[in-house]
Amino acid sequence: MAIDFNKIKGLFIVTEEKTAENTVKQENTVKQEVKKDVIAPQVPSGSVDEKITDALFKALADNNMQGFDYFEFRQSLQTLSKMPLDEATQYKSAFATASTMGVTKEKLLESADYYQKVLLKEKDKFDNAVKGQSDSNIIKRKQEMETLQKTILEKSATIKRLTEEIDSHNKLIEDIQKTIAEAEGKIGDTVRNFETSFQTVSGAIVQDIEKMKIHL
Length: 216
Fold this sequence. Notes:
Shape: rod-shaped
Order of helices and strands: HHHHHH
Distance between the termini: 157 Å
């Protein structure tokens, strides 16, 4: 018998609230039946996404095998879970029902493994999609960021070189200004000395000219 999407979803997601009495009974049963050699699967730290789980349930529904298989067995377990039975009795009772339809333990395990492989294929598709998104977006943006970082380093080096050149030019300007000031000082001194010397010699001649006009 085939099970549609909603029924498969209902086998894994319980929407009805359990009574306090049933919850306590179930918790006590679980505490009694947990074995040390049974290791629970590690659940990632993310949260369950309804769209993702619906996509997984749809994949399971699309690949549902004909006849009584793992899903019908789980459906029987779900019905039995509402009764005051321990876990072992629930599984044995559900298997007893399956056995009347010619279902063996091996066939149940094979069908469960088949659906697990269906989910793994969906995971492969998801991983490839994520990789594609990473290649087209994240990796591309990282490359763009690395290019910008390289450009920044190059421009920083250019700024440093130009700053050093500017400092060198400023130092050279200071040296030139000092040289100019010294040269202007020397020229000024020479001009003043020349004027003084000129006036001294020229003044003496002028005085002699005036005196010769008077006395001769």
